[in-house]
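Worked example 3 (structure in, sequence out).
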């Protein structure tokens, strides 16, 4: 049984490799490869999102008309997972990246913008270091910007100073108005206090507190005066302190409370009286 993995092959003595026909390949020959998406993109046909790292069976070809410093540019053909639309992108050796061509739009990547800005600044610095005239122009422009910044700073300081003066004047005016208002409130409080003292002093003179014993004694004297002796003929009554105090007091007989039973008995008694009279 022969070996499955043969390391040496037999070549006959009359073997001539120049007689083997070679396959001629065109310049635009496409090769089937297996790759992953180098960036996140969105299909322009159906809107399907394709994430970075998604695996595809692709076709690769070399772009003849494009190269960078002798490095060839390659183009890749893939199809959308949803609508099977063709998507193409190619390499960008200048920026060490990829560029979306047709069928899809690359998602926005904020860090790429930062990298591009940093790269541009570094390139400008390198150019200035190599070109003395450009370096002189850059220093002149920087000096002009510094002068403009100083002028703007002086204007801001002057504006802040004016604002502080106005604010201080407003605070002083507010303090003056507050002091005047406090003085007016004090005067009003003093006037109210004096008026209250006068009112309470007048009320203290008119109001006389009476003890409970005095009230009981006065009621007894009133009852005695109401039921007193008649005056003698020909001699006017001498007004006394009690009579002067009891002027305008009239004797009022308090009616007895009457119930339903007493009313029936009264009616019954009146009938008997009528019968007796008859």
């Amino acid at each position: 049984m022969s070996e499955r993995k043969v390391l040496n092959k037999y070549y006959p003595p009359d073997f001539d490799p120049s007689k083997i026909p070679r396959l001629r390949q065109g310049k635009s020959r496409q090769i089937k490869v297996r790759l992953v998406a180098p960036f996140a993109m969105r299909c322009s046909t159906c809107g399907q999102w394709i994430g970075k790292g998604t695996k595809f069976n692709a076709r690769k070809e070399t772009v003849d008309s494009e190269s960078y410093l002798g490095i060839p540019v390659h183009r890749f053909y893939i199809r959308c997972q949803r609508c099977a639309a063709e998507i193409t992108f190619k390499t960008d050796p200048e920026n060490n990246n990829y560029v979306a061509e047709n069928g899809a739009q690359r998602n926005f990547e904020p860090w790429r913008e930062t990298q591009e800005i940093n790269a541009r600044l570094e390139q400008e610095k390198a150019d200035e270091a190599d070109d003395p005239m450009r370096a002189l122009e850059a220093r002149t422009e920087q000096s002009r910007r510094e002068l403009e910044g100083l002028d703007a700073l002086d204007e801001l300081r002057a504006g802040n100073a004016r604002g502080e003066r106005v604010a201080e004047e407003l605070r002083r005016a507010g303090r003056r108005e507050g002091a005047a208002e406090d003085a007016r409130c004090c005067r009003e409080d003093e006037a109210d206090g004096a008026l209250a003292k006068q009112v309470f002093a007048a009320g203290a003179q008119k109001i006389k507190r009476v003890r409970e014993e005095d009230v009981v004694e006065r009621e007894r004297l009133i009852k005695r005066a109401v039921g007193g002796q008649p005056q003698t003929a020909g001699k006017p009554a001498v007004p006394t302190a009690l009579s002067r105090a009891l002027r305008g007091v009239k004797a009022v007989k308090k009616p007895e409370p009457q119930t339903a039973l007493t009313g029936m008995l009264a009616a019954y008694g009146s009938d008997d009286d009528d019968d007796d009279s008859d």
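Notes: The two ends are 172 Å apart (CA to CA). The chain has five helices and eight strands.
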